[in-house]
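#help-structures

NK: newbie question. if I give both the sequence and a SMILES, will the prediction place the ligand too? trying with zinc ion
OV: yes, paste both and it writes out the complex. here, I ran yours:
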Amino acid sequence: MLKKLFITAALPILTAASLPETGPVPPMKPTAQAQAEAPKTTEKTPEAPSSGKADITEHQKPEDPQALSACLDQLTRQGVGFRKLDRQDGPGACGIEQPVELSEPAKGLVIEPPAILRCQTAAAIVDWTREMLLPAARRAYPETQPVRLANASSYVCRNRNSAETGKVSEHAKGNALDLARIDFADGQSLTLQPRDKGSDFAAAFLHSMTASACLYFTTVLSPGSDATHQDHLHLDILERKSGYRYCR
Ligand SMILES: [Zn+2]
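OV: that's the protein plus ligand as structure tokens.
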């Protein structure tokens, strides 16, 4: 597994179709970017020798100290429930220089289990829940309110879709969160699964959540968007040079 990670980390600098997500690369066409976390079952990844350099290129981009400090200050000012964790180091591109454990993005709304993320990811979750999710819930569920977001996955060292080969997941860099369920104060729960648009208020709420998430995250994979995203909502802040967003 370790070896595979190193080998696959070498690929982005060797193949034009999968340029590195970081570093000085020219803008790409959306079609090349659009692969996001989509399954690659039909796509053969060319084997290439590991150069060793790839780990340096692909390894976690150092946090900008000023941006990190501003982010942490902002979470504190906003009264977010979080704490700083020790640096997470993993093989290849895995790891977070300054992880935070996000436990309560908004007052009265917890994430369980608490999510281990980069600060910028946590900040996006905080803003989205406060500005979009909670107001939408007030409209859809006026008699109650969300109290818990079920975290299905935050930081974990793995490839996209847990595949044996391919690009490393944004989860492995602290850039991503998967949500599986929303629990409400009155005991009801909304599982994040495919729902027909316009069929009921739960579906309308889910679609407003996923649509609004694209304003805060650069990748949004809604329940049902592909074979590996049937039972959760994937959100990440992958930086693409072209500014392209992949929201499905
Ligand atoms: Zn995910």
